[in-house]
């Protein structure tokens, strides 16, 4: 489950219309959400609050051997007036990463109207204002800091700023203080990331003070260019997205070189057009008849690391709004090592307190009769077309989901189970990890159910167990 501060940062990205999917770092985000989840470690409590629309706080207390915790503060120039902050009101799917539906690329110019890129004040307004609203705001800026206790303390800080319609700057600082009796200066590192997203392609330029590491990431989307294609033409013709990208790193100090490349094919959400909304379920233009693309969303990825010889493929499928599957196969051409992982997530729908009248699917026929016969009884004022009602029904079910169960298993029979849900006004995350292990009291059981201590083949009859619970409350 995401921390409250991560949830606010996602709200900041949505508020500034920044597409997180149009990045090489998010190429395998769907499979990672379903397969690489972690289970809580022992007992951990989170208390968070959105004190004002611009300021948020969070406190964490955990028991992992010794009592530890953290204190976090966040400030944003972009107000979060419409962002739910109470734990009883936050949609669980916003906090629990699951099947990640890739969104259709959009041109940044369509989302923002900038009056001046170089000025620091009053240079953008939301697209809904048309750029003509008298109340303009500063460039969207976010400040976040987290102090981990007890000593030796670690400070993590983030500075995030939208500097143009297509560019975003991020500065991340990590500083660790030495032991109490040490007189050495705190160890600190700075990571600078400049992102440039045009919709058609994106580039990320990175620099880290740790070993003076330089990096670059790039992603290219095949298909129509959203900058030169109208919104209606683009949504009507593009039902899938093929993306390819690469990354490269180099450190002149340690002579470290790294690179990888990958490709992703993903279906896109069914387009919403006036014709499709008011067409009958049996009409050829209805989204229900677009075939497997709109009925069963899926994502395929292939990544390759040439220097290490690692090849990985993944396939993720959303069988229904409440059930998703994913699998991943990894292979190394140099050592002949392989990895196979499979997992799924199952969402539980809340019990319905009220029942809605069933739709007989004949509303389209009644509408035709009303067009040809003026004496035909008019439709109720609260009636809506059947496809539109089904679309709203699915969205309401997703928003109202109150718990999810995730399961993951690999080729060594290491199993992780994670349950996340809402109990009264508390958000609870509970998990367990099981697997064959050569258990050693010197190391203790594994933390989050990872396979670092697992032994392939299961030669030992012992099984390690890790159980943890995390409780969160926000106001």
TrEMBL record:
<comment type="function">
    <text>Component of the ERMES/MDM complex, which serves as a molecular tether to connect the endoplasmic reticulum and mitochondria. Components of this complex are involved in the control of mitochondrial shape and protein biogenesis and may function in phospholipid exchange. MDM10 is involved in the late assembly steps of the general translocase of the mitochondrial outer membrane (TOM complex). Functions in the TOM40-specific route of the assembly of outer membrane beta-barrel proteins, including the association of TOM40 with the receptor TOM22 and small TOM proteins.</text>
</comment>
<keyword id="KW-0812">Transmembrane</keyword>
<dbReference type="GO" id="GO:0001401">
    <property type="term" value="C:SAM complex"/>
</dbReference>
<dbReference type="Pfam" id="PF12519">
    <property type="entry name" value="MDM10"/>
</dbReference>
<dbReference type="InterPro" id="IPR027539">
    <property type="entry name" value="Mdm10"/>
</dbReference>
<dbReference type="GO" id="GO:0070096">
    <property type="term" value="P:mitochondrial outer membrane translocase complex assembly"/>
</dbReference>
<keyword id="KW-0472">Membrane</keyword>
<keyword id="KW-0496">Mitochondrion</keyword>
<protein>
    <recommendedName>
        <fullName>Mitochondrial distribution and morphology protein 10</fullName>
    </recommendedName>
</protein>
<comment type="similarity">
    <text>Belongs to the MDM10 family.</text>
</comment>
<keyword id="KW-1000">Mitochondrion outer membrane</keyword>
<keyword id="KW-1134">Transmembrane beta strand</keyword>
<dbReference type="GO" id="GO:0032865">
    <property type="term" value="C:ERMES complex"/>
</dbReference>
<feature type="region of interest" description="Disordered">
    <location>
        <begin position="268"/>
        <end position="292"/>
    </location>
</feature>
<dbReference type="GO" id="GO:0051654">
    <property type="term" value="P:establishment of mitochondrion localization"/>
</dbReference>
<dbReference type="GO" id="GO:0045040">
    <property type="term" value="P:protein insertion into mitochondrial outer membrane"/>
</dbReference>
<feature type="region of interest" description="Disordered">
    <location>
        <begin position="370"/>
        <end position="403"/>
    </location>
</feature>
<dbReference type="GO" id="GO:1990456">
    <property type="term" value="P:mitochondrion-endoplasmic reticulum membrane tethering"/>
</dbReference>
<comment type="subunit">
    <text>Component of the ER-mitochondria encounter structure (ERMES) or MDM complex, composed of MMM1, MDM10, MDM12 and MDM34. Associates with the mitochondrial outer membrane sorting assembly machinery SAM(core) complex.</text>
</comment>
<dbReference type="GO" id="GO:0015914">
    <property type="term" value="P:phospholipid transport"/>
</dbReference>
